[in-house]
Amino acid sequence: MNLFLLALCAHLTGDFLLQNDHLVAAKNAGRTWAHLKHGLLIIVLTWLATHCYGLKAASFYAVLVGLAHLLLDSAKSWLEKGKAAGTKLFLFLLDQGLHLLVLFAFFPLFPTATPDPRVIAFYQQLRPATPVFALAMPASFTVYPLEKILWIAVIYLATVFGGAVLTNRILAWLTADTQEEKARRLSSAIGVMERLILITLVVVDAVSAIGFVLAAKSLARYQELNKRDFAEYYLVGTLASFSLSLFAGLWLKSIL
Predict the structure, then answer these.
(1) pLDDT at 175 over 80
(2) What residue spans of the chain are helical by DSSP H?
(3) SS3 labels along 148-160
(4) With b meaning 16 or more CB within 10 Å and e meaning fewer, what string describes 118-147?
(5) Burial (CB count within 10 angstroms: exposed 0-12, middle 13-18, buried 19+), residue 216
(6) Rounded distance, CA 159 to CA 245, Å?
(7) Do 233 and 174 touch, CB atoms closer than 8 A?
(8) Averaged confidence pLDDT in the chain
(9) pLDDT at 177 over 70
């Protein structure tokens, strides 16, 4: 499971966290360099995430995952041209599902699902023999198993950053009016911070504080909420973001 979670973290980081709007626009415009740059990023991140399970196996795995990612993204960009927002939403979900399938499909390349002792020994040699006092953990510090840490990373990456893309596509599907680019970037930034706060509040059993987040968000749009069309648009986007964050928070809480 750890191997898959590491590969998934690499995918989410490359697809949502490190892929900026300029690169996405270039890919949608059919720019070959943009697809190659993104594919190379996926290869590097995947290798870094999985190389502890065998350098040779991780190299083959990363290249195959990166090439498959490149082909899937190129196909999605081509199929999206001139299509309605609903079709683009479906293609986005299909694309992400196929990426997950690819991560599973090439697992037989790894001889075992346990880290390579030689790679682990190499990193252990890099550690100082005596722990640095400033970096020593306090006695009360809780150390979580690696699998739990990886689940935390996956849930936050998928919900906070992947959720921004998904929410924008849902809103684009439900409304015929296109927003200005500046307004869309601001809305995405607000959504990222909103989902980050909501997941954390659910995990720490501070659900009652969610009302303050909703109140602050509504206060900023108070005047615009008098318009029925905007009010419905705002409500759908807020409920989609809140629902995604709530379920992610509950899921993460059950793991912890």
Answers:
(1) no
(2) 2-12, 21-28, 32-50, 55-80, 85-105, 117-126, 146-156, 163-174, 181-203, 210-220, 228-255
(3) HHHHHHHHHHHHH
(4) eeeeeeeeeeeeeeeeeeeeeeeeeeeeee
(5) exposed
(6) 7
(7) yes
(8) 83
(9) no
Residue with structure tokens 């615009």?
Answer: 224
Residue 162: other Cβ atoms inside 10 A: 20
CA 216 to chain centre: 25
Distance (Å, rounded) from C-alpha 11 to C-alpha 27? 17
How many residues are there in the chain?
A: 256
Map out the domains of the chain as residue ranges: 1-127, 137-256
Neighbours of 33 (CB within 10 A): 10
Residue 96 sits at the vertex; the CA angle it makes with 93 and 100, to the nearest 5 degrees, is 135
Q: What is the pLDDT of residues 73-108, one digit of tens each?
A: 999 999 988 888 888 889 999 999 999 999 999 988
pLDDT value at residue 66? 95
Long-range pairs for 5-8: beta carbons < 8 A, 24 or more residues apart: 5/147, 5/150, 5/151, 5/153, 5/154, 6/49, 6/50, 6/150, 7/46, 7/49, 7/50, 7/61, 7/65, 7/103, 8/100, 8/103, 8/154
CA dist 184 and 190 (Å) reads 10
Span 116-128, pLDDT tens digits? 888 888 888 887 6
Q: At what angle do helices 55-80 and 21-28 cross, to 10 degrees?
A: 60
Angle formed at CA 183 by CA 161 and CA 243, multiple of 5 degrees: 40
CA–CA separation, 246 and 98 (whole Å): 26
Name, of 71-80, 162-171, 183-192, the range with top average pLDDT: 71-80
Residues 6+ apart with CB under 8 A from 250: 202
3-state SS class at 78: helix
